[in-house]
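Fig. S4 source data, part A: sequence.
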Amino acid sequence: MKGTLQVDSFSVELEKIPISSDGPIELALDDGVLSVKRLTLAASDTHVNLGGTIDLKGERPLDLYAKGHLNVALFHALDDEITSYGTTEADVTVKGTAAKPVVNGRVVIAHAGFSAIDLPAALGEVNGTMVFNQNRLEVEKLSGRVGGGQVNFSGYIAYGSTIAFDLKSHGNDIRFRYGGISLTADQDLHLSGTLKSASLTGDITITRFAQIPAVDIASAFTPQTAASVPNPASPLNNLHFDVHIVSAPELTVQTSLAKLSGDADLRLRGTAARPILLGRVNVDEGDIKIGGQKYHLDRGDITFANPIRIDPMIDLEATTRVRDFDITIGLHGTMEKLTTTYRSDPPLSSDDIIALLAFGRTQEESYVATGSTSAGSGLGEGAGNLVLGQVINQAVTNRVSKLFGVSSIRINPSVGGPDNNPSARLTIEQQVSNNVTLTYITNLTQSAQQVIQFEYNINSEYTVQGIRDENGVVSFDLLIRKRKK
């Protein structure tokens, strides 16, 4: 049997991608051998030329070739949440039989990039070459940039009866941003397995940690809602984690809530649909702000021991000085069952410590200031002022601090006193450097009452404070902290 076939035009839509012929399609048949004389397919800046012969009787091996230019942006047509760009040049030959084809050739990728909505970082500037070697696509040289850091890839993808892969990546100074958190890390990861069962192993070393937007303490300690049940049919269930996460020595954590230094040793387990975190985060020292008050963190541990879900166990102790009292606050437990302990030097009851932190005076002083018959009213007004102050401070700090670059702005709208005179105060705090803080306090009703405070943290044990009070008197204090076991 002999013959020829010519198709003037051809078009089809495959997975939302329109594919059409570029010119006529010409095929010929001679004694059971099908020859592809001319076949060019086009789709969105993509052109592929196919040619060669196929023995329909299977007596002779395949002799096919494919050359073309692929626009990587086509991946966006497969999934709206994927953004891709770049070009790929391919030159491939197919030998062997239809049952066991032997593919050879290479694929050159130039200036390509991939990103997805749910991923914390995008892969960009991908350049390199991959080689077809019989039933495997091997990475000859491939590199790209993730979060501003350089990443190099190696390994292969096997195809045939099933798709398997064994890929490795090595990257430095990779920055991830997710949920307001910015992480910079070095990584060595290994992805292996099949589409039905894969594992991601390796090591990640965190070198930098920062928080992008401002977050208030209330939202940070709000118990999380129950996690939704993952879809059992999701392919993320097939990807298993075993990644060791450590931090650089004396890692500094800078957020709008705290500035801490410590180290972490964690293990990421579970699946991509339900990750599990195990290990410990040790906090050596630092400063934390709660309700606008600055606390010095003496010690802290955050332990991840729940093998079912990510549920940190917190054990922190922080100290602050209010007037002549050294107050220590302890946070213990999980996010859902967090308990708080209080103690002070000189000793005070827990109620007095809470009143001192909230209103600046103990309960007894509140009774003396407002009178025993109106003590409940005084505390009610103080609570109302405290709530009002938190609302004002959050709104003002989120906007004005970004405009002027100050670290913290607090407004105390309290209107109490023995003579019921207004006493609203404005506090502006600026973190000049890692260990220098300037604080300016003024009475909004009396401009003469201004306080300027300078604080220099020499190290974890010594701090120098300089204060110019409302009367113009300048004083200096040397604070020495010593821990004894």
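Fig. S4 source data, part B ends here. Confidence is low (pLDDT under 50) at residues 213-227, 372-396, 402-406, 413-422.
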